[in-house]
Every structure is written in structure tokens, then in C-alpha cells.
Amino acid sequence: MLSEIFFGKFGMIKRGAISELPTHEVVNMPPYIGDQDLWKNDQALRELSLVQGGKCHIDHLAKVGSLAGLDETFEKAKHANKNSPELQAFDRNGMRIDAVEFHPSYHDLMHLAISNQVHNFAWHNEGDSGHLGQSVLTYMFSQAEGGVMCPMAMSYSVVPSLRSTPGIEAEWMPRLMSNNYDPRDIPAAEKTGVLIGMFMTEKQGGSDVRSISTFAVPIENNEGIGASYLLTGHKFFCSAPMCDAFLVLAKTKDQNVSCFLVPRWRPDGTRNNLFIQRLKDKLGNRSNASSEIEFQDTFGTMVGEEGRGIKTIIDMVIGNRLYCAMSSAGIMRQALVQAIHHTSHRSAFQKRLVQQPLMQNVLADMAIEVEGALSLGLRIARAMDNMDDPAEAALASVGTAVAKYWNTKRCPSLVVEALECHGGPGYIEDSIMPRLYREAPLNSIWEGSGNIMGLDVLRAISREPNTIDFLLAEVEKGRDNHPNLDKAIMELRLELTESDLGESKMRRIAEMMALTLQGTLLSIHAPKYVSEAFCLSRLGGRYTGSFGTLPDSCDLENIIARAYNVS
To answer: What is residue 371's three-state secondary structure?
Structure first.
């Protein structure tokens, strides 16, 4: 909101702010950051988007980057998180409605995201770098607000599952492809646009979805794909319960785990039996409603084949995992921007903080982490855009788990470091840093924790033996670019081809895959001073995971300037 700020004696400050107080003058405080351009100000993002095939989408991505970075957008995100959703289980007449009320800012953000295709860009651009563009949108919008991105992610990821059942695809895809935000709680057929969510986990099982107790019985004598069922049971973690429909796992006869599309409203225009028990009081992601839901003879339609429910819903989970990787990269990016902005305008010991050697090392190290996370996520997105190629399909299969594992693991550590760069001001709620701090761990839990990702990496390379060959061929592209990278490639090859790939090793192997892929990508596409710093600090046996430990030979100033130029 440019109308609320002006340039004063000490830089850009909020209108009405008083710097000359009775007891002291406020000096040496960073100016208000104001509007950001999340596309224009991110050199690595622009370069990598072009390298990975996104040239045709530049205009749209630039537009969304500008809108998502407005101070107004960040302010709305603050208000949406400060004013958490509220459950309205009954109307004023005592009738059950199971509705969730949101702050107006949340609706504004939903409109901004949906009108700019943050929920369906990939499917409007299939065969034309759609997943790449989708990932860039996720990366940028997650910097402003994570809660709104939950229904965006699920609506994007649900499409492959819907396509398993022609009748459902024909009914729901046109509505999902709409760019209209329609928050009304009415039958989907009467709406100008819809969103679709996913309910998988239950109290007793969590990630072990085969232990679910929710069951489904057919209506009349029709069974199988496309047939109608009544579901009874519960789901423990149900995000975005105001979506218009949900993919739900339930057991049919013979304990077969199957997948169902459960709408908020039945085909006859009556409310479906979706009973919200409570909204979760979460650490972060507070603008987004997460709930517990019970089903009591709840109408649903089988999606995919009976007994293939996990396979059907996994088709959705793959997209969500890429979302988690890119969202974490976005959170890291915004934390880095905030840290560079603060340290560039704050002085101590006769120098700006950004000029202090140790602070330079910390900032540059974080910048390398962000560019590595971005490069990995966008490479996997490109693979998802080229699934007809066996090598790309294999990279997408294992890479979504690897990128999800590594980016979400590194995100909390980086946000903590960025918060520390602010000192005390970063720890108070007036800053965006506490919100980023609370948001940072979530993506590591969504769509499978670290152990689940490790097991999925193992399954990917065990199920399709060629996956290892394709992965190694990808990292071999970086050979001879740096001695440490060559060593990492050799070690990864030995680990994957000559050792016993047991479950207990898979976190370490996922880490090796991530770092070697990042090193390869940066050595090919990033400036030498970036790839050199990455290879020296993260490969070759020196890596500790802490920030601010780059070797003296690294070009710290250029790394920081590339990440975010505040001038």
C-alpha cells in the first residue's frame, strides 16, 4: 500500500510514524520493506525458469510475482493468520451446517490466487511447461502466505486422480479449470468455480493409511469404479474443509482400501453428512482451517478401481510433494530477503551488518541454500512436464520424494538463522519472521514425513531398476565441473550400485541424492561463484548443515548481491 508510506529522513517509513521521540531519536532502524517484486527481484528464479523451459510463461509469472509481492498482499496475509477461521457447526436456528468462517483478508487472497491460476496453471498448459509454471507460482505465492496455498496445492494435484474415472473427470474438471473464486457453500453444479481437497489419515494410523477404519458400502447393487457408496468413519487431519469435494480413503468389502470422491453436497441438492468435529489449533498455517471430520452414511463415488485406493490417491500426492518442496523454497527465499534487507540497513561497530565478515558468510550461505532448493524443485517440475520420456519419468518419480525431503528439512534451519540475523526485532510479532518460523516445519509433515520420503525413495529405485541409471546419468552431467562434485557423484554411484540399500540408510541416501543433484544443477546453470561455494561447502565431506561456514575463498559479496540487491 504505497499510499501508506513515504520517504523520510532515514528512509522509507510508514506514514504517521514519529522518529523524534521525547527521550531519543529513532535511528539505525531498517526502513519499511514495502512492496516487493517476487519475480523481478529474484535473479536466480528468472534464470532458472528460462533454463528449465518456462520462457512462454514469463509474462504471467512476472505479473503474479508483482501482485504477490505487494505490501497489501503481505498485510492481508498477516490479518488472515491473526484472525484464524472459526467453526460454525450450526446456524442460528440450530440446524447443522458445518461451515467455516474466514477473515475477509483470506477471501481476498483466495481470489488473488485463483484468478491467477495458482490452483490449475499446470492443467491449462499441459505439454507446455505447465508444472514448471505451477511450481514458480507456488514458490512466489508461498512467500506471502502459506495457508491459502493448501487448497491451491490439493486442487492442482487432484487432477491425475480424477482422470482415473471418466464420469468424475467429465463432471468436475470443467469446474476445477475455472479461474473464479466462489466461496459460497452451495452445490457445486451451481458454482462458478470449485476446489477439491483430500482426507487420508486417521487417528490410529497416520501415515499408515492401510490401517484406516472408515468403511464404504455400495448403494443398491452397483459396485466398483464410478459407483455410489455410503461412507462411515472419521478422518483426523482434514485441511481446507470448505472445499467443494474431497478424495477420501475407505475400506470396502474384503478390507480393500479404495478411493472415493466425497462432495459437500449430494447429487439431489441436500447437504452431505460431513460433520466437522473441531478445527485444529495449529502451530502455524493458521489462516487455513484444518479439521477433524466424521462420516455417517456420507455419499461418495468410487474413484479408480476397487482396492486400488492408495495407488489412486498417490497420483495426487506426487503433485502435493512437489508443492511442498517449492513452498519450502519460497519460505526460505522470503526469510533470506528479510534478513538481507535488515542487515543492509542496520549498523553495528561502525559498519553495516551486511558488511561484517561473519554476517556476510551467513547471508551468502543461506543464499546458496535457497538457490539450490529452487534449482532442484524446478528441475523436478520439468521432469513432470516430460513424463513420456522414461528418463524424465524416473527422475520425477524419485525426485519428488528427494526434493520434498531435502527442501522441507532445510527450511526450518534457514528460517531460524534468518530470524537470528534480525536480533530481537525478528522475534516479535510485528515482524513477518515469527510467521515464517511457524510455517517452516509444516511441509516436512504434509504428504509424508522424512521417514516416509526415505521409504518412497527406496520403493522408487527398487520398483524400477532403471531409475538408478537415469538418476546417475542426470548427475553425471555435472562431472568435471568441480572436484568435490566428481567425488560426490562417485560416492552416490557406489552407494546405489554396490551397497545394500536397507531402510535405515535412506535418509542419508536421499540427502546424497539431493546434494549431488543440486551441485550438478548449480554447476551447469549458476554463476561459478555460486556453484563453487556450494561444492566447497556441501560436497567433499565438509558439510555440517550449519550456516556461516563457507570457506574464505568464496565470493560472499557477489553471492549476496545476486540473491537480493537492495539498492
So the answer is: helix
**DSSP H/E element including 228:** strand 228-239
As beta bridge partners, residue 295 has 233, 274
Quick: pLDDT tens for 103-160: 999 999 999 999 999 999 999 999 999 999 999 999 999 999 999 999 999 999 999 9
Domains and CATH numbers, the chain: 1-32 (no CATH), 43-176 (1.10.540), 188-307 (2.40.110.20), 312-563 (1.20.140.10)
Q: CA torsion sign, 8 to 11 to 17 to 23?
A: negative
What pLDDT score was predicted for residue 7? 39
512 vs 26: CA distance, rounded Å = 48
Query: What does the alpha-carbon distance between residue 415 and residue 407 come to, in Å, rounded to a whole number?
Result: 12
Number of H helices, E strands in the chain: 20, 13
Q: How many whole angstroms separate alpha carbon 54 and alpha carbon 31?
A: 34
- Rounded CA separation 263/252 (Å): 19
Residues with Cβ < 8 Å from 271, sequence gap 6 or more? Answer: 96, 97, 98, 264, 265
Strand, helix or coil at 76?
Answer: helix
Whole-number Å distance between alpha carbons of 407 and 379: 13
